[in-house]
Amino acid sequence: MKRLIACILLLVCLAPAALAERLDDEVLLSYYDNSVIFGDSITEAFRRYRSAVRQTDDSFLDGTTVICVSSISLYAASRRFLSGEFHFSYRGSEKTMYQITKEIKPERIFILLGLNDPVGIKIDKAVVWVEDIITHMPEFSPDTEIYFFSETPVTPGFCEWKGRPNYQEKINEYNVKLRETCEAHGAHYVEIAEALKGEDGYLNPVYSSDNRCHFSDEGVAVWIECMKDYAQEQYDLGLWDPFAAPEEPVASGEAQEGA
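^ thats the sequence. predicted structure below, dont judge the formating
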């Protein structure tokens, strides 16, 4: 009898999760309002796709700023000062990721960098660069949450081009380390790599524009689906409520109850 009661209680607890509603796409993408996505040439495809969709739907990711530059590395982005490396550009000036975040003050930043380092060869160094970003970003924008997209897969052609036949396996290893690093240091890991792979574990050719590492429109569409899935997950876990009324600011000089 006790076992039956325990089973019933377990089912009652699981019921809300099992019956969780799938939010509308527009609501899910609102998770990325007041956010900045930083990236390299991989993210340039995302920016082009977003611009194309906005030609007919100007609300599409309207609250998301996309800042990317070809060939920028995770190492360069992790540095707090401009140097001879590639850097981001914002409003006509070359700036660090920290300076841009301080200026915009977004609720969230999302980072997809690493193939230009390349992280699959420098896994331990890359983890240190990730830790640097997580550690120093609050000095510039303390209320901004930090998210890292998983490093995206490549094709066998990319591995052949780089002369590293096991490079995709190394990217997989890096993503495990990246997730662990985010969890250990209070940042967030957003999985997008797995959905972009084919049955062979490499980037699905349909999702590649160059048979190496860059995305076709179909690939970007999968990326965005992963972003929506992540937002749904946050909603299901009770970590995000898109329907909650915004908190009213306390008027200047007004005493707070209990203070």
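The two ends are 51 Å apart (CA to CA).
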